[in-house]
Amino acid sequence: MTFRGLPVARIVLTVVIALSVSAVAVMLGMWQYERHEVKRDARAAYDVAQELSPVPLADVVPAGASELPADAEWRSVIVEGIFAQDSATVLRGRPVDSTPALQYLAWLDKTDGDSVLVSTGWVPQPESQSAFAQPSYPTGHVTVTGIVRAWEDDDGKSAEDSVSRISAEQLSPASSQPMPGYIMIREVCDAEGCRDTVAGEPVPLPELSLGPHLSYAWQWWIFAVLVPAGAFLLLRRDAREGTATATPTAVPRKKRRHTLSDEEIEDAL
Fold it and tell me: Does residue 3 sit in helix, strand or coil?
């Protein structure tokens, strides 16, 4: 099928626009698929980690590591140390099960000299509060069992009495070599016994849903295929209309009616 009658510039412009839009759609589809893969791998790692028994933290995250190992997040670990009382802070703006909440964070000085940040629990946020209250942390040696999590991305916000993200940028470590991540507490034991957390309730793990990213990726890829097809049909339609306009159907001339002369009328009589 040729596009006879259409200007070459029009054909080229239509093809370039269609291919450009198609390329963008392909890239957006790949971006959505990559997000799907990240969530899929995270959920797979979470499922595997939940089947494993707690192990010493050093077995999962080596001392002095600058980054979490690929299989470290979601692992249940055990760590011993002493809470740094002056390091306690509050995580603000983080509801729990749609309930406004105060989440507590504190650094634990490990027995090997390093430090690890611990999410120590949460309580419903009071309606009126002039300052963020801190729970009472054990002062002696404790054994903490918890789940390893990676640092969150920083949002650039800062406050003197609280943080908005569990990020290295907003939290001052209690030592020069903190663990690259934090631990969500599930049990803390000291000389008085064991309990689930330091204050309130343990912060629940997030729901690891795959989300709609895979379906979005397929939608973008289908759109990428439809755009060139639509451009082809548009050019073919315009070519047909142009041909029809250039060669109009000849309209037969109406036969002229013959008028009799006076002589013909007399002869007829």
Answer: coil
- For 177-268, where are the alpha helices, taking DSSP H only? 213-246, 262-268
Domain that holds residue 101: 52-195
Do strands 76-83 and 101-110 pair parallel, antiparallel, or not at all (unpaired)? antiparallel
Query: Cα torsion at 107, 109, 110, 115 (round to 10°)?
Result: 60
Contact 108, 93 (CB under 8 A): no
pLDDT for 103 beyond 60: yes
Containing 83, the helix (H) or strand (E) segment is strand 76-83
Instruction: Tell me what percent of the residues of the chain surpass a pLDDT of 70.
Output: 82
Of 44-48, 89-93, 147-151, 226-230, the range with the lowest mean pLDDT is 44-48
Is the model's pLDDT at 130 over the cut of 70?
no
User: Under a CB-based contact definition with an 8 Å cutoff, are residues 200 and 130 in contact?
Assistant: no
CA 111 to chain centre: 37
Residue 256 resides in a domain:
no
Q: Please choose, from the candidates 152, 180, 200, 185, the residue with its C-alpha nearest in 3D space to the C-alpha of residue 63.
A: 180
**Is residue 72 one of the residues assigned to a domain?**
yes
Look at residue 255 in the predicted model and tell me its pLDDT. 58
